[in-house]
Specification:
heterodimer; A: alpha/beta; Peroxisomal Thiolase, Chain A, domain 1; 2 domains; about 35% helix; globular; B: mainly beta; five-stranded antiparallel beta sheet; three-stranded antiparallel beta sheet; about 10% helix; binds zinc ion
Chain lengths: ~375, ~130
């Protein structure tokens, strides 16, 4: 297998883009990434997206987006793994370059969510869960996370406000990110007073639905210096799966696919969690941040929340997370999120993260979660000398 | 869900029929043909008692399409006596009276009205346990 590097990144601001369609959003991110890399064509495109069929009445995104970006004729296909679609598309692009099948690959995540609101969008998002045995009983996506959070609080004797640090950190970091949806700091009082959505999850435990697109350009590591940008090497790439429904897990409070994908990515990159300078994790809900930190070896089982309480997740802490706002404050355009995480990690490693810059960042980790943990993709990125 | 889907799921939905793995002995619900514990084939029907306890719960205020008329309602993970956990609604109980560890038992109730397919689907919910053995 060949080494793979990222030579270009692009993104749209995250938010409600009522004036721009799915294809326009994707084009904007792809055009920016191609310009960043200094390329005018590509051999393949992988499009990460979850909801286009449900919300926009549009399937078949591979051909649509490739053609709309002026790349008619190339290999192009949509990759779907619920909220993990974005990083899953990057994983497919990684495999295509690593295998030698393609030299120049574009991976784009795109989601258009705000064309629909209310119960139809809630139902569409719930398709990430088991239709026959979870959704048929009226459980929502936020409801599934609430079931996990209540059990976690019960089993480990944790208070709801002990999760506040995750939301506060995300919002504080988003202030410096021009592409973030919510560039406004929040306080502990804000967190404690937020409206309840599905007890114990309140509005500030939850990431907002949004529109957005992000893209990366991949090429073989050995060719990366021929392009104009500062290359970033994909040192580890792994995708692991678990059962779709929470009730089928051997331990509902353990993200087995996070542990499995992180372990494989660490091994490939030949690093340990102590080597990671920043971690873009999947904070769709505060409980997910705690579970992800535990499964990836940054905290003991049942102690992930402690890193938030102690401030270790802040930019100056032991393991900075959500350095540009995370899902919580950058926003969560579901199928695009995994690519946003990777774009942000690349900006950090290039030293181009502006006000969000983590000092001397050399190794970044990203983790994108589909559903409540059934598909989890972990990438480790390193500065390429 | 349409008529064929409801019909296919009738045994598990209405009677909580799952499977038992003859290789490792684990009871399985919902039925899935391959044992999730030992990955061997497991297609032997097993009738669950319907008794269990609340493992976790939440109240849904913003329901998905098809459930609007029932909101707010309480959804739980119920740990069955025989081992598996199932996702189901709680019924005949005020949300503030629910607690982790509470004994519950299965009842059959209307799950939703599917206006589109004009199908009313019935299935299991759980209520605080009132029967004794
Ligand atoms: Zn077995």
């Amino acid at each position: 297998m060949r080494g793979v590097s990222i030579i270009g990144v692009g993104q749209t601001p995250v938010g409600e883009h009522w004036e721009r369609s799915l294809r326009h959003l994707a084009y904007e991110a792809v055009a920016a990434a191609m310009k960043d890399a200094g390329i005018e064509g590509a051999h393949a495109m992988y499009v990460g997206n979850m909801l286009s069929g449900e919300i926009s009445g549009q399937s078949h995104l591979g051909a649509l987006i490739a053609d709309f970006c002026g790349l008619r004729g190339i290999e192009a296909v949509k990759v779907e793994a619920a909220c993990g679609s974005g990083a899953a598309a990057v994983r497919m692009g990684y495999l295509a370059v690593a295998s030698g099948a393609h030299d120049l690959v574009i991976c784009v995540g795109v989601e258009k969510m705000t064309d629909d609101v209310g119960s139809k969008l809630t139902a569409a998002l719930a398709q990430a869960a088991d239709a026959d045995y979870e959704v048929a009983h009226g459980v929502t996506f936020v409801g599934l996370n609430a079931l996990l959070m209540r059990r976690y609080m019960h089993e480990y004797r944790v208070r709801h406000e002990d999760f506040a640090g995750f939301a506060i950190n995300a919002h504080a970091n988003a202030v410096g990110n021009p592409n973030a949806m919510f560039r406004k700091a929040i306080t502990l009082e804000d967190f404690k007073g937020a409206d309840m959505i599905a007890d114990p999850i309140n509005l500030l435990d939850s990431s907002p639905m949004a529109d957005g697109a992000a893209a990366v350009v991949l090429c073989p590591t050995e060719q990366a210096h021929a392009f104009r940008g500062k290359p970033v090497r994909i040192a580890g790439s792994a995708l692991a799966t678990d059962c779709l429904s929470i009730h089928d897990r051997h331990d509902p409070l353990w993200l087995q696919a996070a542990e499995d994908s992180a372990r494989r990515a660490y091994a490939q990159a030949d690093i340990t969690p102590a080597d990671v300078d920043l971690f873009e994790l999947h904070d769709a809900f505060t409980i997910m941040s705690a579970l992800s930190l535990e499964a990836c070896g940054f905290a003991e089982r049942g102690k992930g929340w402690q890193l938030a309480v102690d401030g270790e997740i802040r930019p100056s802490g032991r393991i900075p997370i959500c350095t540009m706002g995370g899902l919580k404050a950058r926003g969560h355009p579901v199928g695009a999120t995994g690519v946003y995480q990777i774009v942000e990690a690349v900006l950090q490693l290039r030293g181009e993260a502006g006000a969000c810059q983590i000092h001397n960042a050399r190794v970044a980790m990203t983790q994108n979660i589909g559903g409540s943990g059934a598909t989890i993709i972990t990438h480790i990125l390193e500065v390429q000398e | 869900m349409g008529i064929p889907g409801s019909w296919r799921l009738r045994n598990q939905r209405l009677s909580l029929v799952g499977e038992v793995c003859h290789t490792c002995g684990n009871k399985i619900f919902p039925p899935r043909d391959v044992c999730p514990h030992c990955a061997r084939e497991a297609q032997h029907a097993f009738q669950f008692s319907g008794r269990g306890e609340v493992y976790s719960f939440t109240t849904v205020f913003n329901p998905p399409a098809g459930f609007e008329e029932y909101a707010p309602y309480t959804v739980a993970l119920v740990k069955l006596e025989e081992g598996p956990i199932v996702t189901a609604q709680l019924t005949d109980v005020e949300p503030e009276r629910v607690a982790i560890g509470q004994p519950v038992e299965m009842v059959t109730r209307k799950l939703r009205d599917d206006g589109h397919a004009e199908v009313i689907s019935y299935g299991y919910k759980f209520r605080p346990r009132i029967t004794t053995d």
